[in-house]
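Hi, here's the filled form for the chain we discussed.

Project: internal
Contact: R.S.
Residues: 554
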Amino acid sequence: VSITAFGQQGPKAHWAANDLTVLAASGVLQITGDGDRPPTRLVVPQAFLHGAAEAAVGALVALHARERDGLGQHVDASAQAATMLATQFFVLSHAWGVAQLERVAGGMKVGPIVLKFVNPARDGHVSVTFFFGTSGGPFARRLMEVMHERGFVDAATRDKDWLNYTDLLMTGVEPATELMRCIDAIATFTAQYTKAELFALARQRDLLIVPVATTAEVADSEQLAAREYWVEMVHEAPARHVRYPGPFARFSATPLRYRHAPPRAGQHQDEVLAEGATRARSTPRKPVTGAPRAPALAGVKILDFMWVIAGPASTRTLADYGATVVHIESTRAVDAARTVQPFWQNQAGAERSSAYANVGAGKYGCVLNLRSPQARAVLQRLVQWADVVTDSFACGVMQRLELDYAHLSAWNPSIIALSSCLNGQSGPHATLAGFGTMGAQMAGFGELAGWPDRAPAGPFGAYTDYVAPKFTAAALLAALDHRRRTGEGQHIDLSQSEAALHFIAPAMLDYTVNGHVMKRTGNASPESCPHGVYAAAGVDRWVAIAADSDAQWQ
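And the returned structure, exactly as it came back:
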C-alpha cells in the first residue's frame, strides 16, 4: 500500500507536497473560509488522513481478493483524490453546467442561493442546518414555527413552502434577498440563547441545531461518556494514563481493542523481526491462474437502506469493486440526496443531482413502501439473499420498521448489519436526527477552521459525511473477513461523530494531555514558514505556498 500526495502516476506524482498544497489541489481549500479573505485549512492537517483512510479500505479490498485468487496487488492511494470527496461533489460544478461554488464562512453559496450553518449564541456559536426539500424542509418549517412563537418571524415567513423552496429560489419566484432575511432572522434568534439552551430546544422540538463544540466540550460530552467512548492508555515514559479517542465502530461479535500505547522507537524490534522470519518460511498460497480475475468484491451482496451522502458513499465504494448493491427507496420519501445541489444544467429534479449520481453509481434501485405487507415479503427474500444490510436512519427507525438486527438475523442468521447515524445507537443524544453539518460541529471541527478574529468558518459543508464513509467501508470489509473465517454475522454500530474524531485526534490529545484547547489560526503553522494562501491574478484566485524545511525555503 502506497499513500502519496498525488498517487504513483501523472505529472504531479513526484511533486513536493504537504497538507496545505494537497488541500489546494483537491479543490477543498478554495471553498473553505471567509469569502473576503484567503481560503483556510483546519489547524489539524486533514489531506493525508483522507488518503490513509482510503488506503485502509484499499488494503482490505485487496485482502478480500487475495483470499479468493491467492494473488497480491499494489494499492495506490492518492491523498488529493481521496480528499476531493470533501467538496461534496461541487468539484463537478463546471462539468455539470452550473455556477461555481463561492466561499462563505460556515456555509456555502451557489448562484443566488446562500446557506449559512454557523450562527452566534450567547456563549459561542451553534450550527443551524437550514436547507430545503424532502430532507431539510420539515426541519426548516419547525424552526420557523419556534421562531414565530417567540416573535422572531411573522406568520408569512413561517408558512413559506419550505419543501419546494430551492425551486422557488432557482426559478426566481422567491428573491434571494428574502432568503437572506430569513438567515439574518435565524442569527438574531440564536444570539439570544446559550448553546446548551438551543441544543435542549433542538432535542425537544426536533430541530437541526447543535453546539459548535470546543475540544474541551467534546472531551466532556455526556453522549460520549454514556457510550464509554474514551480509552485510557498507559504510557511508560513518562509514566501516565492518557485518554484517547476510542474505537471508530462497535462490533457486536468482534469488538475493537486497543492493544498497547504508541510504541517507543524500536520497542518491538526483536518480536517483529522474529515474526517476519517465521512467516517467510511458511508455505505461500497457490495463486489462481488462467481466467481473468473477477472484480475484488464480486459475489458480495448488499441491501442498502442508506440515504443522503455519508452512508451511500461507503456502499458506492464497495459497488466500485464489484459488490452487488440494491438500494431501497420509497416514492413517498425518495433518497434526500436527490434534492442536493449541484443539479444538472442548474435544473432541480430527482434524477439531476450530482450528489445522488455519485453515491448511487454502480447500484441497483428498488422502490418499496416499507409499511406494506407485500413489501415485507419482498424484504424478507432480499435479506435472505444479502450478505450485508446497511442503514443510516436515526436511532430507532429500523426497530420501528422491525428491520433491526434482531429481526434481520432471524431471517438470515449470518447477516452483517451496519447502522450509521450521527451519534450511534445508544446514549442520551442517540435519537438526534441530522446531517454531517451537525456532526462536524459536535465533533469539534468547527472551532479549528477559520481566523482567530472571526467566527468559525469551516470545515466546508457536511464534513463528517466525507470522513465516515471510509470508516464504514473498512468496518464492513472487516466483518466480511470475520464471517468468511467463522460463519458468524454481527451488528455494527457506527457513530459518524465518533469515527470522525480520529481526524482531529492531535487536537483532542493536546487537551487531554496538555490541557490546551486548540483554536483556529487561519493558515499559520507551528512547523512551516512560509505557510499560507496568497492572492494570484484574477478574482478569487489563490496559490498555496509552504516550506517545510530550510532547504525548501532556500
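Let me know if anything looks off before we file it.
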